[in-house]
Fold these 4 entries.
Entry 1:
Amino acid sequence: MLKGIISITGKAGLYKLLSRGKNNLIVENITTGKRMPTYPHEKVISLPDISIYTEGGDVPLPDVLEKLYAKADGKAVDMKGFATPEALREYFAEVLPEFDRDRVYTTDIRKLFSWYNILVAADITKFKDDEIAQDEAAEAAEKADEESKA
């Protein structure tokens, strides 16, 4: 579950939010375990708040990570295996075919794969909240009931 996992602009890696102070946040680097404060002038964003542009709207990052996890069979993505930016974009097109090729840059895809690798290495492989998954399952069941009655 990605709740509490954040990215800090200008700092490499991902961080786990530990606590909130009066004028700062206390975070822990997922990879190294090192704790540090962040301050109001630093741009902090929660991973569930990020989305990827597609032709039909935006797709939340947790959904994209789920698809990437399925495509990679739960393993890390070998970033060195992509000889060219086009190869990287082709692989991402297999994960999310409808991504907006004009607005999603190769650097964005690299960052996404890097974050995915960090999460998998930290054994964080559940990307969506249980409540959201339960809501989606309930909606799918309702839709199936409606279709079977029709």
Note: The beta strands are 5-8, 15-20, 25-29, 35-38, 44-46, 51-54, 57-60.
Entry 2:
Amino acid sequence: MKHILNYLIAGTAFFAVACGGNPTPKKETTIKPVPERIEFLLPDLPIDLAREEEPMWYKLHFWDRFDFADTLFLRKIDTTQMVNAYASYINLLWDEPQNGLPIDTLMRKASASRPMLDYFAWLGKIVLHDPNSPLRNDEFYIPVLNAVLASPYYDEYERIAPAYELKIARQNRIGHKANEVIYTTADGRKHSLYALHAEYTLLFISNPGCPMCREIREAISSSPMLNEMLEQDRLQILVLHPDADLKEWREHRSEFPTDWIYAYDDGCQMEKNGTYNLNAIPALYLLDSDKKVLVKDSTDIPYIEEIIDRRE
């Protein structure tokens, strides 16, 4: 479980850099006692466990040494280290990105008290929902939101934000058909996502000029697999601008290959209707011939290639 240890070590090192290096206080300065810091501890592996069995064992026992009734722990824990520990746990679950059951089980344990539920809901938001998180995953975040909304700890006003987030997270789920998109091309004509006929459709929600959008465009253009599929008419790429300002959209048209569909969402219907999550742009959705979602809200071209390769 090298990747788990790397996450935990990285978190500890980050805290040390951020908090170290203070000058020696003068004699007359009163030194306040430093609060005791507590670290999250992994359970000890059984000595007779085969190496290939370690991932599954950690999946089942990752939280064995964590006391969900100890809310005092939350005031003493190294926050960065705890975020990294949570991310390590999500890493363990990544081979089943549609299986939210482990997170559901974790959130049931965390519901022992409001402080504990607040804390694990926050961890989930940071790791599973933040636009900048590489582990962003709605299927894992849905159980987090369900736990908050099912809890008696929150009033109706506190439920508004998680209820909205849950509505958005439930859009375009993997294995389900994608929401319709009516897009407009440079000639002013409107077209339907469902009218695209190809074995695969790659919906690329992009803001022209953003650095990460450019990186993804270049990664797609450099992919032998995706370009071969384009040439064979097995893949359609729809680059969609979701905003109302079309000035930059027009200015950047020449940067995109001519065999990609370059379009915009006239009237910002996706945002108005809440049919796609636009908090994180760029975003890639890989769809099959029936427009079922194979990859949701991703920026990872190698992963998209891997998903296609598994189906070949």
Note: Confidence is low (pLDDT under 50) at residues 1-34.
Entry 3:
Amino acid sequence: MGQTDRKVLVALSGGVDSAVCVQLLREQGFTVSALVLRFSDAHDKAVAAARLAADQLGVPLTVRDCSDAFRREVIAPFCAEYCAGRTPNPCLVCNPRVKFRQLCEAADEMGIFFVASGHYARIAQEGEVFFPRRAVSEARDQSYMLYRLPQEMLRRLLLPVGEFEKPEIRRRAAALGLAAASAPDSQEICFIPDGDYPAYIERQGYHGAAGNFIAPDGTVLGPHKGVLRYTVGQRRGLGIALGRPVFVRRILPGGDILLGDAGEEFYAAVALNDLIERGAGLVPGERYEVKIRSAAKPVPCRVLRRTPDGVILVFDAPARAPAPGQAAVLYRGDLVVGGGPICEIFSEVPDPE
């Protein structure tokens, strides 16, 4: 098994992107096998769709149940983070700890070096270092989602879909007669199909910290429904009538929620912990672009200083509602060079020392 082998194992989800990924790799001369991961009961439809896609494409498919690992590594931390007043992105945890780990382990068992997925991203190499790289499609780019993948995964990973725009992928799927060609893109959290994450979390036996809403002037307005139902920047569903629009400015450690007026949702800087770095690492004073959530546009920033467990980033222009628990992912050009969860937000630029 080695990099010269022309065999690859594709993570097949049943969607259009991973299905076309199979065909693109075959066109590149690879012998393709497929793997579908069953993460939870909510994924049974995806497993069925993957079976259909594999049959239509004529590739061997392995079904691998990883529900125990998914519950331990993804669902439990997701629930705990929301209950602590943070806003997690479960895909960022799943990709290195479950999805790509299971994919690589299955490939090892089959004697296959290369693995692939239908992510809209690319892989770049500088010297001995591999980087996630932005996709050709700016609108579809998913390089943010791969920022935590370690070198041993990145060096094996093929991402052919990252070279295309979405309409071309759908056109190719239609030309192949694939059932997934017209399937809608998935928008919700994959293990919560109805999107009602507070109800899901409570069904798992978790309960968010209680507390009060605090008005912008410091007035205690009364109890909220538990911190798991709120996130920084949220305006709707607060049930607060102050005669003017307000939003969630901060979720305080004790469970109280500080509200803000329009204009106060912008922050000058953020602190990151649990840092991932590639290449030369993140250098104080250096400038980068940063995405503070998966759907955000990258914005210019600089590293103010390092901290014992991360860095502090200063935005060129104040950024709207960076939420603790979400990741800030840094780019040098097209390359993902680092990132980490947001652990603190600053209305003003902190002391550089």
Note: The first strand starts at residue 7 and ends at 11.
Entry 4:
Amino acid sequence: MPAAPLLIKRESKLGELIIKMFTYPFMLRAFCVGSLVALCAALLGVTLVLKRYSMIGDGLSHVGFGAMAIATAMNAAPLAVAIPVVIAASILLLRLTESSKINGDAAVALISTSALAVGVLVISMSTGMNTDVYNYLFGSILSMTEQDVLLTVLTSAAVLVLFILFYNRIFAVTFDETFARATGMNTGLYNTVISVLTALVIVVGMRMMGSLLISSLVVFPAVTSMRVCRTFRSVMICAAVVSVVCLNVGLTISYLYAVPTGASIVLCNMAAFALFCALGYIVPQVRERLQSSGKTI
């Protein structure tokens, strides 16, 4: 049989699978929740990367795992337990980071490994490594309930509103905290706002990405957009677009090929990072050649 009809048949089958994908409620929930979490994580990620706090997401995800493990052992609602615990941990991390007695990376390592150890110990003494624990570690699009969607929508809306309201102050704290403090700004308050918002995004995103991979949503889009964009606003917009696109493509790949959701999304982010690295190398050379020839772009 000629190659062309086979290719057309495969494309038709792929299109049917994609259309069928949106008939499942759990996939619609995944796309809704994932897009909101990806958007919020990208916006906060730019600030965290520029402030050299990018590892705080990884530390908080481990704290979230420990809190969810304790909630599972107590037969309590995982998110209801994890949210206040992770928020408290984020504030504690911020205080330890600002203290000169403990280095920021050391503070993250201390809290994250302690929380992970507590979670593993509690699990081993109660339920064992069952399917729920696996989902907490690596994420699952099937694990999200309608209550999770509602909580995520409300949390994401709060994050976006607060981020927009405090955008100018977050910008000032990100780039020159010393100057912002000298002008009378309460930098401690806005650093706390950033930490709390990050904690909320980490917790609601763990259901899909898992505690081991959720920090990639914070770091990858920000670092990727910085390969090409140069202003704070352009980096923010580019990071948000890259994050949402990669998440939706990763979800689609996860559904079509029955592979883990979190890993698929991370691989899409890796591909986007490689593409932007190439663009970051090519675009300046093209601009220089055009400028040397009397043209501008």
Note: The chain has two domains: 37-208, 219-297.
